[in-house]
């Protein structure tokens, strides 16, 4: 796996802290820093996600991917899966993640809550490289809602 990240601006320009990442799979991701009114040439323009936001988003994508794949392999009728991540970071540099909570919402037909709980645990403990890596500095917790299209009920 590879990625090239290039700075898009120079000191004194409007995009002083903008970056473009070109992934090995041929995709592009734009990142920007937070605006700094006291030092405009040091801050971003708030035109794209912050780099640490992309780390959190990537972790959500990694674990949601796992959960869907595990449920599908179990022949469950998954119709939707989202995960809302909330986090806290250290106050001092390096401002690593110290707490991350992942709340999954899984939608489908006749999926047992135990299957969703198992899929989340397998992702968290075995498959999701991103959350396992972040788990070295952050306490990661999970929860879920299960929306059954047949019963129109929520559990979890």
From TrEMBL:
Pfam families given in the database record: OsmC
Classification via InterPro entries: KH_dom-like_a/b (IPR015946), OsmC/Ohr_fam (IPR003718), OsmC/Ohrsf (IPR036102)
UniProt-listed SUPFAM superfamilies: OsmC-like
Signal sequence annotation: none
Name listed for the protein in its UniProt record: Osmotically inducible protein C
Organism name: Pseudacidovorax intermedius
């Amino acid at each position: 796996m590879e990625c090239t990240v290039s700075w898009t601006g120079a000191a004194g320009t409007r995009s002083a802290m903008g970056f473009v990442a070109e992934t090995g799979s041929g995709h592009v991701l734009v990142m920007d820093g937070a605006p700094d009114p006291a030092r405009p040439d040091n801050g971003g323009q708030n035109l794209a996600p912050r780099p640490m936001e992309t780390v959190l988003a990537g972790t959500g994508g990694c674990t949601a991917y796992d959960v869907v794949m595990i449920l599908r392999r179990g022949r469950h009728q998954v119709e939707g899966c989202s995960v809302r991540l909330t986090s806290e970071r250290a106050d001092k540099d390096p401002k690593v993640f110290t707490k991350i909570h992942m709340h999954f919402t899984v939608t489908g037909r006749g999926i047992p809550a135990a299957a969703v709980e198992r899929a989340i645990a397998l992702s968290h403990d075995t498959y999701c490289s991103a959350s396992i890596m972040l788990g070295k500095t952050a306490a990661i917790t999970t929860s879920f809602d299960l929306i059954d299209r047949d019963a129109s009920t929520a559990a979890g």
